Amino acid sequence: MQLKYQATLCRRMSCLPESVSQLTTPMLCTLTNTTSKPPVQLQLSYQHFAEPTVSANTIPIIVLHGLLGSKTNWNSVCKALAKENFRTVIAVDARNHGESPHIDDFSYEAMVCDVVCLLKELNFEKASFIGHSMGGRTVMLLAQMHPELVHSMAIVDISPVGQSPNMTGLSKLLKQIKNLDLNHDLTLSEARKQAAEKLSKLKLESMLVNFILTNLADNKPISNWRWKFNIQAIEEHFQTEICRFPILHTDVQTRTLFISGMNSDYVRPEDEPRIKKIFPKANFKYITGAGHWVHADKPQAFIQTVSEFFREEKHHYS
Questions:
Q1: What is the average pLDDT across 144-165?
Q2: Quick one: 197 exposed, middle or buried, by C-beta within 10 A (0-12, 13-18, 19+)?
Q3: Model's pTM, two decimal places?
Q4: 67-86 per-position pLDDT tens digit
Q5: pLDDT confidence of 134, banded at 50, 70, 90?
Q6: 3-state SS, residue 47
Q7: Angle at which helices 299-311 and 75-85 pack, to 10 degrees?
């Protein structure tokens, strides 16, 4: 396949006509979805990682991050995966995250629409996927709606069934972030300092505070700083859209690996039979010493586990 890459962090969706891609108003997506109003397709930001001699006929690996994350959180893992598997790895910012556009519409159906458009823009007939948490559910819904697009998928610490109590607790955290009330006249360094102080008073773990602070970014010349995530849209739709997961089909024959942290309760061994009714080809791996952020807690174990999974499959287009 011809790879139409551009090594910039923010890429316009060239599946649209050039005159359309210049517009700031998003276009309606033609993807069939479970909502009455079709989602809009956005011009997502992505970055690719590849060894210099990777064949253009190689099926890529696309990485979708979790809630409040971004593609930059995966830089070191993506570099290692590209080298280990000798395949192109593409990390993508979801809508309302990272360098991708902010929009009120925020659901798994909308994020699936974005991925379908990205595959079209990159001229990929299918891809392998790694999806963490929210990104994992996006991939699982994509596999239900368009199984022909998903060559295989590694789902990181998230389940299509049940719900972790920690996920419910995220609703409170999102409200707290929304209500931080940082002054926009502050410099970026001052905003980070003030945000750190306010978040610390909420008795959050330092690792979580630091993770949230990675989302404060320079916004000149418009203002001194901005949140990379759209906290208003995320908080508004979290309970109604992100906590729930639409199970449209069972017996989805996509090759699947669930990689979970042993210290996390997002995927439980007792849920495996229910998961296999939806994805009968699923296998399960639990990483010792890892929590919800498996790839950050135990990066070497994660890279080894997911690479073994990808090495077992055909990785070239026919």
A1: 93
A2: exposed
A3: 0.87
A4: 999 999 999 999 999 999 99
A5: very high
A6: strand
A7: 40
Q: What is the pLDDT of residue 64?
A: 98
Q: What is the band of 35 on the pLDDT scale with cuts at 50, 70, 90? A: very low
Q: Where are the alpha helices (DSSP H) in the chain?
A: 18-21, 75-85, 108-121, 134-145, 165-178, 188-201, 206-213, 231-237, 272-278, 294-297, 299-311
Side by side, which strands form the sheet with 255-261?
A: 46-49, 89-92, 61-64, 127-132, 150-156, 255-261, 282-287
Question: Which of 20-34, 155-169, 207-221, 276-290 is the least confident region?
Answer: 20-34
Residues 6+ apart with CB under 8 A from 316: 55, 57, 58, 59
Q: How many helices (H) and strands (E) does the chain have?
A: 11, 11
With tokens 């729930």, the residue in question is: 244
Tell me the C-alpha to C-alpha distance, in Å, between residue 62 and each of 114, 152, 166: 13, 10, 26
Pair 34, 246: CB distance under 8 Å: yes
Which tokens go with 111?
Answer: 């994020």
Q: What stretch of H or E contains 131?
A: strand 127-132
Residue listed under structure tokens 């379908």: 116
Pairing relation of β-strands 46-49 and 127-132?
Answer: unpaired
Q: CA distances (Å), 47 to each of 74, 132, 171, 250, in order?
A: 10, 17, 30, 33
Return the closest-CA partner of residue 227 out of 184, 256, 257.
Answer: 184
